[in-house]
Amino acid sequence: MDKKKILICDDDEGIIDVLEMIMEEVGHEVMSVNDSLKVQEVIDKVQPDLLILDLWMPRLSGQDVLRYLRSHPQHDKLPVIVISASRDGEQIANAAGADQFIAKPFDLGNIVESVDALLN
Asked: Which residues form the Response regulatory domain (predicted)?
C-alpha cells in the first residue's frame, strides 16, 4: 500500500499520541492538530488523504469543521472518520457528513480497519 497522509484533529494529546503511533506503525504519514480552528489551514497546506476528527472540541466543534469541509468543493470528498464519546455522536457525525463514526473508547484494530477501508 502507498503511504497515505492522515490528519488527526483532537484536543486530547493522549488520543493524538496513540493514533499517531498506530497509523505510523501501519505505514502512514501522520500529522496532527489539537486546535480545531487550525484544521482548515493544515488541510490546505498538507492535502491529507484522510481526516480523523474529534466531535467535541473547544472553540469549534468537529461537527462545524465537517460541515464546513462538506460545503467546499475542494474538500467535500475528503474521507472523514469522526470519533467521539458522545451518546449522540453517531447521529451528529452522520448528519454533518462523516464517512464513518467510531465511538470512544475505541478499539485500535477497528480504527486501522476503518482507515484502510476508506483509503482503498
From this structure: 5-119
Q: Are 53 and 28 in contact (CB under 8 A)?
A: no
CATH fit for domain 5-119, picks 3.40.50.10860, 3.30.160.70, 3.40.50.2300, 3.40.50.300: 3.40.50.2300
Break the chain into its structural domains and give their ranges. Answer: 5-119
**Distance between CA atoms of 116 and 40, rounded to whole angstroms?**
23
Residues counted in the chain: 120
Which amino acid would we find at residue 32? S
Residue-wise pLDDT tens digits, 5-45: 999 999 999 999 999 999 999 999 999 999 999 999 999 99
Predicted model pTM: 0.96
